[in-house]
Amino acid sequence: MICADARPLLNLLCDQALETKDSAIVLAHLQTCDECLSEWRQLEDLRVRFIELRNLHIMPDDLMEKVSRNIKAEERRSIARPIIKALPLAFVATLLLIGLLLTSQNHSQSAYALVEDSQLENRGNISTKVDFPIKHVNLNDWTLIHSGVYRKIGSGQIARFEFERKFATSKQNLVCYQALQGTIKANGAIPEQIGEKTVFFGTHARRQFALWSQGGRDYLFVAQMSKDALAAVVRRA
After folding, report:
1. Which of 28, 30, 118, 197 would suit a FRET pair with 157, their CA atoms being 20 to 30 Å apart?
2. Residue 208 and residue 217 in contact, taking contact as beta carbons nearer than 8 Å
3. Number of other residues whose CB lies within 10 A of the CB of residue 218
4. Whole-prediction pTM value?
5. Which one is predicted more confidently, 159 or 105?
C-alpha cells in the first residue's frame, strides 16, 4: 500500500470501521511509514480534544476560529505536496467538528481511566445487572470472582468482570470491561492485528491493557502482565 491509498483510510482505522483485511494492510503500512504514522497520531490527538469538549458539553467561543486556523496552516504546509496529502486532516477536522455539534449528547469512557480504577481495593458499585446482553468470551483458564455494573455512561453501562488464575506459587488477576461498541476509547494507543481482532495495546498506571471491538461490543482487558502474555489471552478470547 502507498501513502495516497493509506491516508484516506486513517480516519476509518481510528473509528475501527475497516474490515479486518483492510485494517491489517493499513497497519502494515503504518509500521513502515513515519509520515503516515505521524498523521494518524494527529488524528487521534484531534479526536481526544473533541471528545473532552463533548463530554464537558462546552463549545468554546474560539473553537471554530482555532479549527479554521489549523486547517489553513495545514493547507499552507501542503502547497509543495500532492493535494492527496493535504486533504485528509483538513476534512477530518471539519467532520469531527460537525460530529461534535450533532452528537454532543453521546458519551465515551477513557480506557486509561478504567485502567486506573482497576487497581482500587474498594471496588464498589458492583451489581448483578447490566442494560445490554452480555456476550461471553473464552477465558477457560480463569475463574470469575466478581461481576456487575461498573459505571453508567450516558444512556448505557459498562459491565465489569474480575477474574483470577492460580498457579502453584502465585496467581494473576485480570479485569475485563464490556460495553456497547464505541463506548470505550484508547486515544493515542497504536493498534495491532491479533488474529481477526484489531487490538489497541497500551501501558498505564503500571498495568498493560488491550482494547478491541467485536460483535457490537467493546472489550477492555487490564492486567499486570507483559504485553505478549496479554496478547495471548486476547487471542484465545
Report:
1. 197
2. no
3. 23
4. 0.58
5. 159
